[in-house]
Structure formats: C-alpha cells, structure tokens
Amino acid sequence: VALPHLVAAVLIFAPVARARTFDRVAAVAGGHVILLSEVRESAAPYLSEIHEKDPLARARAETRVLRETCERLIDDVLVVDEAERLHVTAASDEVDHAIDAIAKARGETTAAALAEAASQGVGETQYREMIRVQILRYRVMQLTPGIDRSKGDEAAMSALAAELREKVYVEDRMAAP
Amino acid sequence: VKLALAAVLLACACGRAAPAPRPVTLPKARGHEPSLAERRAALCARRDLVPLGAPVVAAAARPTEAGTVRDVSVRDAQGRAAEVRAEVLAPLAPGVMLDEAAAREVERRLWKTGRFDDVALETSRADGGGVHVVFRVEPKRELADVFVAGDADQGDTQALRLLSHAIYDPVALVGARRSLVAAYRAKGYLDAAVSVSSTFAGADRRTVDACVRVDRGPRVTLDAVRVHGSAFDAQLEAMLAREDTENVHGAVLAEDVLERDLLLVAAFLYDRGLLENKVEKKIERRGDTVSVSIDVVDGAVFRYGAIDVKGHLAAPKAEYTKLVTEKRGAVFNRTRMMKIVDAVRALQTSKGRPDDDVEPETNLDDKKHTVSIVISIKGPQGFSIVELARGKGRAAKRGDLVSVRYTGKLASGKVFDTNVSKAPFSFKLGGGSVIAGFDRGVSGMKIGEKRRVTIPPDLGYGSRAIGGIPPSSVLVFDIELVSIQ
Fold first, then answer.
1. Residue B408 CB neighbour total at 10 angstroms
2. Chain centroid, CA B212 distance in Å
3. Residue of chain B whose Cα is closest to the Cα of A1
4. CA distance linking residue A138 with residue A146, whole number of Å
5. Contact between A68 and B60 (Cβ < 8 Å)
6. Residue A6 forms contact with B (CB below 8 Å)
7. Cα–Cα distance measured from residue B384 to residue B443, given in angstroms and rounded to the nearest whole number
8. C-alpha count within 13 angstroms, C-beta hemisphere, residue B476
9. Which pLDDT score is estimated for B279?
10. How many Å lie between the alpha carbon of A99 and the closest alpha carbon of chain B?
11. Nearest CB neighbour to A37, from listed B11, B100, B118
12. Residue B438: is its pLDDT beyond 50?
C-alpha cells in the first residue's frame, strides 16, 4: 500500500475532533520528570542534521537521536541534583570563560560561536545551560570517590552517570525495549 | 513494505504510549491459581520494579496545536475527572492561547502532587473553535501483598514503607533502600544487600505485589586499632584507648569516630611541634573482622619564630604582648597557641569589640623549621570610627551608663533620627539595648568627644526595614558623649 493512500485513508476515517497527545512524561529521574516536549526541543539541533531520504531509515535515525537525548537529559538532571547536594556551583562568569575558551579553541569569536549554535537551533540560554551542566559534571566527577579518570573523560563521565543512576529511581520510558 | 512501515512510524509522531508490557506471568499449574507461596517465590526471584508508566514511542515531528483554550480538565484513562486544586491548572486558563511552556508547567505541577504515575497532555479541536485541553493522568497504584525473603523482616518492610494498601512509589523506594543498606552496614553487616522487586497483582494493573529481599552477610567486627610509624606510637595508642570507647575489640567499626581519632592523632602531634605530620588510616578486612592501622609520618619538629599581634587593636600593645606566653625558640604547641588566641579574643570582647575577627596567621620556614605567627585582628567589614572632636577624662567602657547626643543618617545623607535638640539619650554600654554598631561606636569615647561612626548592616538593622531605614542599610551616626555614670 502506498503511503499517499494510507494517509488518505486516515484522513477519511479520522473523527472531526480527534484528540492528539501533545506532550507526556518521557522519563522519571529521582524526583524529577522529563517531558517529551523537552526531549524534542533539546534534540532539535541533532535532528536537523539527519538527511536520510528513506523514510524508514530517517525514522530510525530520529528515534535514536530522541532516545540518546532523553538519556542525556536524565544524566544532566542527576548531575545538577548531585551538584546541589555537594554544594557545587558554576558561576555565571565561569560559564562566560568556558564559552570564550571553546570559541578560542575553534579559532572564532564568542559571538560567532553563539551565532553558529543559534543557527543549529541552540539559543544562547540553552547553550549557556549546557555549558553550566558540563562544568558541574566535571566538578561532581572530581568530588566523587571511585571515579577512575585514567581512562579518559568519556569513560569517567559514563562511570559517574552509572553511579548517579544507582542512587535514585530512574525510569526511561523512551529507552529501547 | 518500507513505506507502509514508515507510515506506521509516522502515525506515532504525537508521542503516544506504546502498548504496555504484558503483566508478569506467574508460574501457574494447569487447573489451579498460584498459591501465595508460588507467587512469593516467583516474585522474589525477580530483581525489577513495575515501572510507573508505559514506554513512549515518539518521532521527531512536533505536534502543533494553535488556538484559544476552550476548557481544561484532568481525567484518567477511563475519562473520569480527577479533582485537583485550582492553582495546579492556573498557568493554562480557558481563554488564553495554548502555550507549550504553560502546559509543561501544569504537567509538572500535576506530577508534583504525588498522586499520579503518568501525565500526558491531549488536545482536540472544539466545535465552534478553540481547543479542548485534557491532562490524562494515571492515578498511583496501591500495594497488595508484600513478601519478604532472605534475612528480611517486617522491620525492613516498614523501613521501606512497603505496607499493604500503601501507595506504590518506586521513587521513594529506591531512596529508602539505600538508607536501609546504610543502616545494615552501620550495624556491621558490611556486605548487606537489599533488593526490591514488584509485579502487577491483578489483571487490572491497579495493584502491585512487592518482595523485599535482604542478604545481610556476616557481621564484621573490629579486631584492633594500631598506630604505626610515629615516635609516639605507644602514647598515641594509649590516648586513643582513653578517648575512643567505641572502636574497641569486638565492636562494629564506627567510621565517623575513626575520622575523629585521626584528628586527635594529628592534634597530639601538632602539640609537639610536628607541623608537617601525615596521618592516614588503612582498614584491612580478614573474614569477619577488620583491623585498622593508623599510619603516621611525624616529620620535622618546628619551633616558634616571631610571635606578634597586629591589626584592629582595642588596647595598648603591651596588654596583648602580656598575653603571648609562648617564647621564640620553644617547640610549637597548638593547644597553648590557641589559648593565647582565645585570650586575645577575650580582651577584644572586654574592650567592647566582640565581633572582631581574631585569627592566627602562620608562616612556616621549611629550612629552619620555625613557624612565625601573627595574631591578626580585623574589625567587621565596613565599620569605621572617625574622631571629630577630642574628649576628656576616662574612656567609656562596657557596663557604664552613658548619655549621648546623636544624628543618624543613611549613606545618602538622609537623616532618619536625631536627638540633638532633645534630652540626651542614655543607655548601658554593651548591654545590647542599642544596635551592635552603636554600642561599638560609643565604646572608648571620652566626655565631650565627637565621633562619626559608619555601621554596616550586619552591625545595624540587617535585612530588616525599620521606620525610614530600608533593609540592608549602611548607617552613619554623628555621636557626642555627654556623660558617663
């Protein structure tokens, strides 16, 4: 059955005032919920990079991005909670310095780096929040005993995420079955 | 086929719940319902918890619904209305445009009520325009039977708040499980493991059975605490035997007390001039016992270099010098030095400056093994006294009944109080009847003396607003001392 025919069938038999699910709980992380609308918003820059023509492959790629984004948001929430528990903060000027350093490392100005992020759908507020969480993550990592940093930051961050997930109830409703 | 599959995936674009997993199938002999023992055995063999909500299948396409909110309701899956307080729904009122941020806020508020396992937002077009908004909720489930396995007892189920007919709340459960493990470890069960599993109790999925399994493992007790590496090993062990009555042979190791023991060891060494000492603990487990080794490196003995008192002095220097009873060249002793610092603090207080910051600043010379000390006195930040006119006679001190004329101003120059054209104001100095900064400002004045005293908020009215004084104000007083009794 061709797609246009299926769509047409859906339109013909659709009730006039069909209820649509607009948003829902995508994950529970400790005392927090992560909403599907937040996952979509956060995934937008990565979704825009999917250029698959094949609808099935595209849908698969999108699902993967949404699932990964949901995982990341869970980890971010847990890091922020842990930072609060440890009284660890990231001041506004530290976020500024980090953004400047990232831009410098790429050989561009801070304004250009922010503009580039904006062009990918990441506004300045969202970008700053991402950097803030990343600073907190490094600080929490340093204060968490038993995190082995000798195998690189990536491995250490995974170990931290696993450790934080052990402490609270986590329910990722978007996870692959 | 690919296109058809794609169409199916696209139909999921609004984020609907995927079909929920089937209930756990308990071992069931043909022809009879599983017994309680069979249910218990099947459940307690599991390690997973019933999730709060169903998996979510979502595609990237974001549903868009624009229009004015016609009405907002909260309903369960069967369409029954759920009562919630009006303020929960307040961000999304009928008549306003449907707003994603406001809708999210309502979803969060519904979740925070603690009454629901799931919250979803549904919208539909209303006849005649506008949008119906329904928050579809899943009320929390109840616990049915609670089983115990291993070493678990009823006390454990109570600690986990797993009681029949209680709300099934895995969020609270995970936190309570951690606390229970910590409690077991504090009792010496260092290998204690606590697991909780749950499964649907009925086909309607509204109740949940739970099983608590505790494996305590052996109770581990302390063999001995030994000190190694110091010239004072025997004395240190004797001191710990006196001071630590908890970490003794046969008891469960109290780690917090052990941490205090390490501080006691370090303090002992500081009192013998061993300022670069290193104190570390090693806990070694052998079967059902642990032994603690406190490893010490003494380091060099330090002697006093120069000792001085500097800063915001409230009395002639000689009075402070008299308090410094330690001498250059003697072996440093932390306890005796802190007594000198306390004596300096007491002197400041007796001179009407109880809020001064008195701290020792040390400077170690690693080659000569000497330590120079400056006892630094700092007045409160922002407090200052400027003498405007000299007085005569003795200085006012704590306990005197003093009379003053004054004008109080804000930093802007605005006068908020004055008694210049009235009778002098009398109060007992240091008695706490005036703000601390005023007490401090008058202390040491002589009759006829005039001062301008600047008082920071923490010595004034703090964050309170008093009369015409805004919160957190810096106050400036011009004060003249009229009499001392």
1. 22
2. 30
3. B4
4. 14
5. no
6. yes
7. 13
8. 9
9. 96
10. 27
11. B100
12. yes
Q: Which of B384, B481, B355 is nearest to B429 (CA)?
A: B481
Backbone angles phi, psi at B24, to 5 degrees: -65, 135
Tell me whether A1 touches chain B (CB under 8 Å). yes
User: Is A59's CB within 8 Å of B59's CB?
Assistant: yes
Give residue B314's pLDDT: 85
CA distance A19 to B16: 11
Asked if B123 lies within 8 A of A22 by C-beta distance, the reply is yes
What tokens appear for A126 in the block? 């969202």
Give the residue from B163, B253, B264 showing the smallest Cα distance to B212: B163
| Phi, psi (deg, nearest 5) at residue A129 | -65, -40
Percent of chain B having pLDDT more than 90?
A: 62
What are the DSSP calls for B137-175, one per residue? EEEPPEEEEEEEEET--HHHHHHTT--TTSB--HHHHHH
**pTM for the full model?**
0.67
**Span A104-108, mean pLDDT?**
90
Identify the three-state secondary structure at position B252: coil
Strands in B189-277 per DSSP E = 193-200, 207-215, 221-228
| Rounded distance between C-alpha atoms, residue B122 and residue B125, angstroms | 11
A124-143 and A92-105 are packed helices; what angle lies between their axes, rounded to 10 degrees? 100
Single-letter residue type at B370: T
Within an 8 Å CB–CB cutoff, is residue A153 touching chain B?
Answer: no
What CA–CA distance (Å, rounded) separates A42 from A75?
Answer: 13
Q: Token pair of B331, please?
A: 């072996």
Of the listed ranges A3-7, A52-56, B139-143, the one predicted with least confidence: A3-7
Angstrom distances, CA of residue B341 to CA of A57, B180, B358: 75, 45, 7
* A111-140 burial code (b ≥16 CB/10 A, e <16): eebbeebeeeebeeebbbbbbbbbbbbbbb
**Residue A135, both tokens:** 């600073």
The C-alpha atoms of residue B366 and residue B142 are separated, in whole angstroms, by 68
B194 and B151 in contact (C-beta within 8 Å)? no
CA B478 to chain centroid: 42
CA–CA separation, B94 vs A176, rounded Å?
Answer: 38
Helices (H), B45-160: 86-89, 100-112, 154-159
Residue B196: list chain A partners with CB under 8 A.
none
Nearest-Cα distance to chain A for B57, in Å, is 6
| Rounded Cα distance, A55 and A67, in Å | 18
Would the CB atoms of B175 and A168 count as touching at under 8 Å? yes
Identify whether the C-beta of residue B374 lies closer than 8 Å to the C-beta of residue B459.
Answer: no
| Alpha carbons B120 and B76: distance in angstroms, whole number | 10
B59 interaction partners in chain A (CB closer than 8 Å): 59, 62-63, 66
